[in-house]
Amino acid sequence: MNPNTGGAERKSPPVLAGAVARGCEVLAKRWTPQLLVLLLQGPARFSVLVAAVPGLSRRVMSERLRELQDARLVERTVEPGPPITSTYKLTPEGEQLRTALEELCSWAERWDRALTAS
Fold first, then answer.
1. How many CB atoms lie within 10 A of CB 81?
2. How many angstroms separate the CA atoms of 12 and 92, rounded?
3. Which of 2, 52, 83, 84 is buried most, with the most CB atoms less than 10 Å from its CB?
4. For residue 99, is it within any domain?
5. Structure pTM?
6. CA–CA dist 98, 64 (Å, integer)
7. pLDDT for the residue numbered 4
8. pLDDT for 82
9. Is 50 a domain residue?
10. Inter-residue contact 28 to 71 (CB < 8 Å)
11. CB burial class (10 A; 0-12, 13-18, 19+) of residue 114?
12. CA angle 79-82-84, nearest 5°?
């Protein structure tokens, strides 16, 4: 019995550590989910990704794509030019996020409809 909680024992919240914390760290960065959702549709060039996400600067997009490459979720292919172009696609590890991202998109659409209906 804990006198500080009115007699009831309180459980401490779980600590996010290890793989879950690292996964959240990668996926929770601004613009990352949007880029992953776009890449679910298939490979895309850098310029197509820039145009598809209003407000995302080229510099930040380069950073996010580099981070996703480092996390082995996205693969970059450089095509010789002129002009030289870069195409990005999900790796097999990135494809494993498909179900979760599609479910997130479905939830977001339902949530948005509920918000706008109020």
1. 7
2. 36
3. 52
4. yes
5. 0.80
6. 18
7. 56
8. 87
9. yes
10. no
11. exposed
12. 35
Which tokens hold the place of 44?
Answer: 């895309």
**Does residue 53 lie in a domain region?**
yes
Report the run of H or E that residue 72 belongs to, with start and end: none
**Measured CA distances, 73 to 25, 58, 80, 91 (Å):** 13, 19, 23, 5
Tokens of 35: 């880029």
CATH number at residue 35: 1.10.10.10
CB 90 within 8 A of CB 77: no
pLDDT in tens, the chain (118 residues): 555 556 567 776 666 678 888 888 889 999 999 999 999 999 999 999 999 999 999 999 999 999 999 999 999 999 887 888 999 999 999 999 999 999 999 999 999 999 998 7
Provide the pLDDT for residue 47: 92
d(CA 69, CA 72): 5
- Domain holding 42, by residue range, is 29-113
* Residue 94, in any domain of the structure: yes
Contact 75, 89 (CB under 8 A): yes
The number of domains in the chain is 1
